[in-house]
Amino acid sequence: MGDATGTPLRTAVIIGSTRDGRFGPVVADWITGHIGEREDMTADVVDLVETPLPTVFPAFGQAPSEEVVARLGAVTPRLAEADAFVIVTPEYNHSFPAALKNALDWHNEQWHAKPVGFVSYGGLAGGLRAVEHLRVVLAELHAVTIRNTVSFHNYGEIFGADGRPTDPGCEVAAKAMLDQLTWWAHALREARSLRPYAV
Ligand SMILES: Cc1cc2nc3c(=O)[nH]c(=O)nc-3n(C[C@H](O)[C@H](O)[C@H](O)COP(=O)(O)O)c2cc1C
Asked: Whole-prediction pTM value?
């Protein structure tokens, strides 16, 4: 089901960790499965390992090199087309990974007036400190962060061998977050189509 445009909400699922042996894709597959079951959303998984972005930025006013343009070309249009984002993030040193910050910093208007939901994982804190840091950064980028999160505390004890959480409460949390995300995505897509977002 879409909104007045009749089009399902294009949702970019961003895998925030790039570590060898990372757990992130398990979590991303799980939430992408939830999105796939909904008629009002489609998912595009943006994996920063498959589409690495440079960490050296051009000087202000300087055109990026061809290599930088090519690398951005694998990510930027997908963020621009997204109506909503789900960021899947672990907690690194009480915050979110550097590769994810880099992906945020390479972009600006692609985030404007769009909603962002979070699925986090970590130790005792379940990645919630990473999420709270992301909220501050995304406010600077004119994004709207979703109140409810899905967070996996001591995630190693929660996921079964099938790559799904064993606690049914996780499915409830995913639905609540995605319901809020789609409400905002519909509202903001309609608003952007009526009136371009101006900064
Ligand atoms: C550099 C680094 C810092 C970490 N810092 C934290 C932390 O502050 N809090 C926490 O709960 N877990 C921390 N962890 C554990 C990670 O949450 C855990 O290793 C998780 O699997 C990382 O996600 P990934 O496997 O997708 O890379 C840290 C892991 C790494 C590699």
From this structure: 0.97
Domains along the chain with CATH numbers: 9-55+67-193 (3.40.50.360)
In a 10 Å sphere around its CB, with 0-12 CB exposed, 13-18 middle and 19+ buried, how is residue 196 labelled? exposed
77 in contact with ligand 1, CB cutoff 6 A: no
Indicate whether 75 pLDDT > 60. yes
Ligand 1 mean position to 86 CA, how many Å?
A: 19
Note the pLDDT tens digit of each residue in 89-114: 999 999 999 999 999 999 999 999 99
pLDDT number for residue 1: 46
Q: Whose CA is closest to 149, among 136, 122, 123, 131?
A: 131
Measure 199 CA to ligand 1 centroid, in angstroms: 35
CA distances from 86 to 9, 48, 61, 188 (A): 12, 14, 31, 16
**Percent over 70 (pLDDT), the chain:** 98
Atom of ligand 1 nearest to the CA of 19: 27
Q: Which residues contact 186 (CB under 8 A, 6 or more apart)?
A: 3, 9
pLDDT of residue 6: 76
